[in-house]
UniProtKB/TrEMBL annotation, chain A:
Keywords: Cell inner membrane, Cell membrane, Membrane, Transmembrane, Transmembrane helix, Transport
Protein name per Swiss-Prot or TrEMBL: ABC transporter permease
Highest taxon listed in the record's lineage: Bacteria
UniProt key word Acetylation: no
A GO CC term attached to the entry: plasma membrane
Organism: Rhodophyticola porphyridii
Keyword set includes DNA-binding: no
């Protein structure tokens, strides 16, 4: 695939370029829906398609009115503030508990390691609708349904597998002799953890945290059931908007979320490279 | 321990070590056998590891595993009938002849249960529960809740006509309540502070049904309305119980009000009688229908397979398990549709994902990393953003139809219906799940050495043979991993089918959500969820066998 040999036949040439065109179309399929909503969100009309003014690149066809609506509409602002309150709390909870457990799991002698791992990973495997149903039943029994605490706990549970997976992956390359060296030089376990182990696994912890954050920030099924109107988050507001009466403000919100994802993706990618470099692997 | 003592200890242990070297097991520095010492160190290590894991494990058990267990429990739990109609359930135990209506005892038991349930406003809940099994039960129960007050009125009137004292709450309290309760009640300052009602000794033996009915009356009005039994005339069902008890005699009762009771006992055989069955049939003639009773009896067990049967289009009838009527069969179809559409989505993902993964793994590292971003960006983009994009694109007035009309492929008045059907769901979900196919495929393909294909070609294979016979078989593990992953994710999807699936493109998960939030048939939702969960876990087990959980990678 890497380069076409000079002796290639016409058929091979045709296939070589044909294949690239096919791949280009698939990439187009992957990216186009996300890219299309960005210009549409600047639509001056309440339509979901390109107006003639927009196609002529007439400035009159574009406006920021949908963004304005997002930043002034109390419904959207309430949803945004709920999201901003719930996601960080859930992230902190899952990162703290998840990192500790990942360190425990990476020790050499852990009884029932397989079973424990299966339980900890299970929130990622079980379909969201089932988690949501179970949590709804159980949380309404114990009075957590419709509370911030309930939503935060539920989201933390959903984010934990990501923290476990990323942090355990980082710990695989962790050199145990470093902690031993630190201990032999007189550091107590807490100092060793914060001064030696933590800086090395930090990239894994942060990217796990980002995964946990995006899981909570993006989550709609569980919050739909475990939360009540008071805990309406951004995705929930988008979901009801899409289901009942679709308003172009959704496209403005979507564009903002795409920008956030690009930022997060960049951070994760940089962290991954840094982590690989620290562990002496090729940055790839 | 002081230094000196430590020194002495060490000396002693040295001596023992020398000793042991000659005779016993090897010793560690502190003088213990090396084996025990190592075991101890290992145990400490294990405990430390477990102590680190324990908080999270506990957290997950409480916030996640317990809810799942609760759901599994709810899928078989059925205590509402036996809790709300306890006397009826017991009375129905010896109802064998199901072609005939149950006896008067069962109707009387139903009257007592129903009166209490209606007062506690629980009868409608039982009605809706039984309505899942037999339609019409809900309205029957709701209507009977209003008519139940009249059952037994005929006897109440005749008792009062015989002796107006029967109308007095005080008569009943003197007859029924224990002295202790009467004393404590006399001291209570508000109705809310009344003690829990207690029967007088002996009355339950003399008048079993009346005592039970009166206790039910007293406790219910106290807890529900904070009323005082000393100021309220009993329900008509209590008079019904009294009539039935007195027909059987008073059992030589000689407590308070014995004279009045004996007078009534003598008069009762001459009362105008009306069967309880007829009184119920007056409220609603369905009560004279054996089907209603069969339903109550079939669901009187505290645990039931009824929800699971309903989830596979079967039902529990008095004659055993049988299929639902044709027009009510829904869930098998829905499961089939869910699986079929998930397969379609998985297949489209292979079709689109394989070329991309192939391209990425055969390009120079720098280019492929750049192109990989095009895969990762959709992966990182909010699910709702992608779904809303498709909702906007696929609309009849949307961008895709506009382009098709503009090219001239489609007439303006015959725009394609791309959304709110199966096609919409498949397109949108293929897009959403495609990265989950590409990433595992890519990670497998990266490890396939290019020299194999080159070797095949140098041995004379054509491009196609080299690919199909050499390259493709090595990429199969990646296909397997990607397929199972995509299929597992697709089968439990909720949001996207809900938004773009319309009526025909929805999954079983949408039905689960419907039963939780709209029809409130939680048991059925739990049963459907349990089946889906079992399916996913089986697939996941397969995934673990083929790929291994540890190979789950992110990004």
């Amino acid at each position: 695939m890497s380069g076409l040999p000079p002796y290639a036949s016409t058929g091979q040439r045709a296939w070589y370029y044909g294949f690239r065109v096919i791949c280009g179309l698939i990439f187009f399929f992957l990216m186009a829906p996300i890219l299309v909503i960005i210009p549409l969100s600047f639509n001056a009309q309440d339509f979901f398609t390109f107006t003639p003014e927009m196609l002529r690149l007439d400035p009159a066809g574009y406006s920021l009115q949908h963004y304005e609506d997002f930043f002034t509409n109390p419904d959207w602002q309430q949803a945004l503030s709920n999201s901003v309150r719930i996601a960080p709390a859930a992230t902190v909870l899952s990162v703290v508990l998840g990192t500790l457990a990942a360190i425990g799991l990476s020790q050499s002698h852990v009884p029932f390691k397989g079973a424990i791992m299966a339980i900890l990973i299970s929130p990622m495997i079980v379909p969201l609708i089932i988690s949501a149903a179970g949590m709804y039943f159980f949380y309404s029994r114990v009075g957590l349904q419709g509370t911030y605490l309930g939503v935060v706990l539920a989201h933390a549970a959903l984010g934990i597998p990501f923290v476990i997976i990323t942090v355990t992956a980082t710990l695989v390359g962790f050199d145990r002799s470093l902690t031993r060296a630190s201990a032999s030089l007189g550091a107590n376990p807490v100092t060793t953890f914060f001064k030696v182990q933590m800086p090395l696994i930090l990239p894994g912890v942060i990217s796990g945290g980002l995964f946990a954050f995006i899981t909570s920030f993006d989550e709609v099924v569980v919050v739909l059931f475990v939360g009540s109107a008071g805990q309406k988050t951004l995705p929930w507001q988008m979901f009801t908007g899409l289901r009942d009466q679709i308003s172009p403000t959704i496209l403005a919100v979507a564009t903002i979320l795409v920008v956030i994802s690009v930022a997060l993706l960049t951070v994760v990618e940089l962290l991954r490279r840094r982590s690989e470099r620290l562990r002496g692997m090729s940055p790839g | 321990m002081t230094d000196a003592a430590a020194g002495m200890g060490r000396a002693a242990s040295d001596a023992r070590k020398l000793d042991a070297a000659a005779t016993g097991p090897m010793l560690a520095a502190d003088g213990r056998p090396l084996k025990a010492s190592l075991n101890r160190a290992l145990r400490a290590q294990k405990l430390r590891a477990l102590a680190l894991i324990a908080p999270l494990l506990l957290f997950i058990l409480v916030t996640f595993i317990a809810p799942i267990a609760d759901m599994l429990f709810r899928s078989v739990e059925n205590q509402i009938v036996s809790e709300t109609l306890p006397r009826t359930v017991i009375a129905l135990e010896d109802w064998q002849e199901t072609s005939q209506l149950p006896g008067e005892d069962a109707y009387a038991a139903l009257a007592y249960d129903f009166m209490e349930a209606a007062e506690r406003r629980e009868h409608t809940r039982v009605g809706s529960r039984l309505n899942y099994e037999t339609t019409g039960m809900s309205s029957l129960f709701r209507q009977s809740g209003r008519g139940i007050d009249d059952v037994g009125e005929i006897y109440a009137d005749q008792f009062v006509a015989l002796n107006p004292a029967w109308e007095e709450p005080a008569t009943w309290v003197a007859l029924m309540a224990s002295e202790r309760w009467q004393d404590e009640a006399a001291e209570a300052e508000t109705d809310a502070a009344l003690p829990r009602f207690e029967l007088a000794p002996g009355i339950a033996e003399a008048l079993p049904e009346t005592a039970d009915a009166y206790r039910s009356f007293a406790r219910t009005i106290m807890s529900e309305d904070e009323d005082d039994p000393r100021a309220e005339e009993p329900w008509n069902t209590v008079y019904l119980a009294l009539y039935r008890d007195l027909l059987a005699g008073t059992g030589g009762y000689d407590g308070p009000q014995a004279a009045m009771l004996n007078e009534a006992a003598a008069a009762v055989p001459g009362f105008e009688a009306a069967s309880v069955q007829a009184q119920f049939a007056d409220i609603n003639e369905d009560w004279a229908d054996t089907e209603v009773w069969e339903t109550i009896e079939a669901f009187s067990d505290p645990y039931t397979a009824g929800y699971f049967l309903a989830a596979i289009d079967m039902q529990l009838t008095p004659d055993g398990i049988e299929a639902q009527p044709e027009e009510q069969q829904l869930y098998i179809l829905l499961f089939q549709r869910t699986i079929f559409m998930s397969l379609m989505i998985t297949f489209s993902c292979i079709l689109l994902g394989y070329p991309i993964a192939y391209l990425l793994s055969n390009l120079p590292m720098r280019t492929s990393n750049l192109l990989l971003i095009l895969v990762l960006l959709p992966f990182w983009t909010s699910l709702l953003v992608r779904t809303s994009a498709w909702k906007v694109l696929l609309q009849q007035e949307g961008v895709i139809n506009d382009i098709l009309v503009w090219i001239g492929l489609v007439a303006d008045d015959a725009r394609l219906q791309l959304i709110n059907n199966q096609l919409g769901t498949i397109i949108a979900m293929t897009h959403i799940l495609l990265p989950f196919m590409i990433l595992p495929l890519y990670s497998v393909m990266k490890t396939i050495p290019p020299s194999y294909v080159r070797a095949a070609k140098s041995l004379g294979a054509t491009d196609w043979t080299a690919f199909w016979r050499v390259y493709f078989p090595q990429s199969v593990p990646g296909i397997g991993a990607g397929c199972i992953l995509v299929f597992i994710l697709a089968i439990g999807y909720y949001i996207t089918p809900e938004l773009v699936g319309g009526r025909t493109g929805t999954f079983i998960s949408n039905r689960i959500a419907f039963h939780i939030s709209s029809s409130l048939n939680w048991g059925l939702a739990a049963a459907l969820g349990s089946i889906l969960l079992a399916l996913v876990l089986a697939l996941y087990w397969l995934y673990d066998r083929i790929v291994g959980i540890d190979n789950v990678k992110l990004g």
